[in-house]
Design goal:
Strand order of the largest sheet of chain B: 6-7-8-3-9-10-12-11
Distance between the termini of chain A: 40 Å
Structural class of chain B: alpha/beta
Oligomer: heterodimer
Radius of gyration of chain A: 22 Å
Distance between the termini of chain B: 30 Å
Number of strands of chain B: 14
Radius of gyration of chain B: 21 Å
Order of helices and strands of chain B: EEEHEEHEHHHHHEHEHEEHHHEEEE
């Protein structure tokens, strides 16, 4: 599924870490850090949509922002279109910015209320191009057409638009510089159900027409199933599972993905009443103080002894389907001794 | 599923208007419904459809001005809640009618302990003394599945997680054993795994306590799993009402039909393109003289612009406010 589009990697993220320091006390000493994104790796192929799902606080938005280098990352490398941008400074990043853009969650907060729609959409053009005023106006109209906004509204202000239309303004602004890669950070979360479908269809249409590549961040698993080609599931700063969309939804491997999918209510009473929900106990631990071993071990219904001690590596369970869970350690034959030890532990665990 | 019996709550022709500087907003228009003992009535609609305003109007929780409940009747225990005095209403609220709101952080008072806030309705409405109220508060926290209840009574709201805060809210709402519980988007601010916990808790509590529940949500998935009966609202009106399976299996109003198609699912069929309801919800600046959905309706014809359709029975326990009949594909004989 993931190589059905072009098969060329546009974005490569290796071992990305984004830690935020915690300062406390009179001298504002550094007392710890919030590991918002902790050792995350994934690729995004040109023309595809990678869905990034997880619950609030799992680090998915931070991850999206870090990939666009809206933060100075703690460590790791990010390649965009063959260029390393993880280490790049402001001066090297600026000419690269037009290729990578972002659509934000809250169209109310991300549009300047004192600027007209035309000026909002033209702002990236002012910053990055040398177009004449007439050319800019022409481009703004073109963009407004592309996202389905009436040209007559160019001189109106954001508050005069509904939520869905405001999100269209945000999308038009993101498209202004002909980007190749767009991070959509919960673009539909603030919208009503009937408007969500309009915006998602628009994003898909634009992708087909302009060959865009998306990182689609969302907590809405059913919408991600609709829009994404591949899906990465995050929990407490880590990607726990990454798979082609159909494989992930049909045969989730990680216990967290299983629980997450089973928790989504189905809009169909006959399925919903029959469905067995896996109820997770408790809440997500704080990313400032993650548990030892696997981050999910405090809530995992299939927890084993090893999970509380050793952080699970990532296993390939099928082509393009990777899982970070000790349950799958036996499928990979590493050093014989290690495997035997793990198996021994597992069998005692299962015997309980 | 509970059926028949005398309704615990009967709402008739409720009409609520907001007066603003830029004119009136007719948020709720002639809404009528019954709530039967022990049932869970789901209320679905988009933002601005009037679902929250309807429920707030019932129990006098809207600030007036700008809100004005212009007409209607809300019968609860032989009294018309729209006519009784404020003190009487206050005695009913919290005691016989409980509420849970969307955002547990803003509806709990941050400067009082959870124990104090739980004991407040018990002491006010039930006249309990402090030790008795404390004992009952602890039981309530245990009832909603908060571990270590005794100690947590002394904690402040910020010391609880979002899901736990919502459990506290539910405990407060249930404190005085209400006959009716009104829950306004109680799981919308929560993550799916926490939402699943709260939905499960709600099912258990209903079995144990048997109160009637009005559950407001925009999430059709939540409704499918929890409701006995569903009421769909659009543009300040009830457009369709039916038992849950009937509504999902045999939707009659074009809005309900479209809404069900726009929602993708995690396990069902995956459509290549999402169905869309074109256009925007209506602006309710006057009492609608025509169908509020007609501008977005694929089935609209000339009559829809002339008259506002009344709700007509279309099946057992099922009614819809529409002139179009999906069975015949033509106008309905009403």
């Amino acid at each position: 599924m993931f190589d059905t589009r072009t098969g060329r990697k546009l974005v490569e993220v290796h071992n990305l870490k984004m830690h935020f320091p915690i300062h406390a006390g009179f001298f504002r000493r550094r007392v710890g850090e919030v590991k918002a994104v902790d050792d995350v790796s994934f690729d995004i192929y040109e023309g595809e949509t990678l869905g990034l799902v997880g619950e609030s606080g799992c680090g998915k938005s931070t991850c999206g922002r870090a990939v666009l280098r809206l933060y100075d990352i703690t460590s790791g490398s990010i390649w965009l279109n063959g260029e390393e941008i993880g280490e790049a400074d402001f001066h090297r990043l600026r000419p690269l910015r037009p290729t990578m853009q972002m659509v934000f969650q809250d169209p109310q907060a991300s549009l300047n209320p004192r600027m007209t729609v035309a000026r909002i959409i033209a702002e990236p053009l002012d910053e990055h191009t040398t177009l004449s005023r007439a050319e800019k106006t022409e481009r703004v109209f073109e963009l407004m057409d592309a996202v389905g906004l009436n040209r007559d509204f160019a001189n109106r202000y954001p508050h005069e638009f509904s939520g869905g239309q405001r999100q269209r303004i945000g999308i038009a602004r993101a498209l202004a510089l002909n980007p190749r890669f767009i991070v959509c950070d919960e673009p539909i979360a603030a919208l009503d159900v009937s408007i969500q479908a309009q915006v998602v269809n628009l994003l898909e249409e634009l992708q087909d027409r302009l060959g865009l590549t998306y990182l689609f961040i969302s907590h809405d698993l059913s919408m991600v199933r609709h829009i994404a080609d591949r899906v990465a599931v995050m929990y407490l700063g880590k990607v726990v599972e990454l798979a082609p969309r159909d494989a992930l939804y049909a045969t989730p491997k990680h216990p967290y993905t299983e629980a997450l999918l089973s928790a989504v209510p189905e809009p169909d009473p006959s399925i919903e009443t029959r469905k067995k929900h896996i109820l997770l106990k408790g809440d997500v631990p704080s990313p400032a103080n993650p548990p030892e071993g696997c981050n999910f071990c405090t809530r995992c219904p299939k927890v084993m002894d090893i999970c509380r001690k050793v952080e699970p590596p990532t296993f390939q369970v099928a082509p393009g389907h990777s899982v970070a869970c000790h349950l799958y350690s036996e499928t990979i034959q590493k050093t014989a001794g290690e495997t035997a030890a793990i198996e021994a532990q597992e069998s005692t665990q299962q015997g309980e | 599923m509970p059926d028949g019996g005398v309704p615990v709550l009967a709402v008739k022709d409720l009409k609520t208007v907001f007066r603003t500087r830029s004119g009136e907003v007719h948020a709720v228009n002639k809404v009528s419904f019954d709530l039967r003992p022990g049932e869970l009535l789901g209320v679905v609609g988009e933002s601005g459809s009037g679902k929250s305003v309807t429920m707030m109007s019932l129990i006098g929780l809207l600030p007036s001005p700008p809100a004005e409940v212009r007409s209607g009747q809300v019968m609860f225990g032989g009294e018309d809640l729209l006519k009784v005095k404020e003190e009487r209403l206050r005695a009913l609220r919290g005691a016989r009618i409980g509420f849970v709101f969307q955002d547990p952080m803003t509806s709990l008072n941050p400067v009082f302990t959870v124990g104090y806030q739980l004991m407040e309705p018990l002491r006010k409405h039930m006249g309990m003394d402090k030790p008795a109220a404390r004992k009952r508060a602890k039981e309530l926290l245990e009832l909603v599945g908060i571990p270590d209840a005794e100690r947590r009574l002394g904690d402040y709201p910020h010391q609880f997680s979002g899901g736990m805060r919502q459990r506290v809210m539910i405990a407060i709402a249930l404190a005085c054993d209400p006959e009716v519980l009104i829950a306004d988007e109680p799981t919308t601010a929560l993550d799916v795994t926490i939402q699943a916990q709260i939905l499960e808790l709600m099912k258990e509590l209903r079995e144990k306590l048997g109160m009637a529940v009005i559950w407001i949500t925009h999430d059709l998935g939540v409704i499918a799993g929890i409701a006995d009966r569903v009421m769909v609202m659009y543009g300040g009106q009830v457009v369709e009402q039916a038992p849950v399976r009937e509504l999902f299996g045999n939707p009659q109003h074009p809005y309900t039909r479209a809404l069900l198609k726009t929602v993708p699912s995690v396990s069902g069929e995956r459509a290549e393109k999402l169905a869309v309801i074109e256009g925007q919800p209506p602006i309710l600046s006057a009492e609608p003289a025509a169908c509020p959905f007609r501008a977005r309706c694929p089935q609209a014809f000339d009559r829809c612009a002339r008259e506002n359709p009344a709700r007509v029975p279309v099946g057992p326990g099922h009614d819809a406010a529409c002139f179009w009949d999906p069975e015949t594909g033509g106008p309905r004989n009403v």
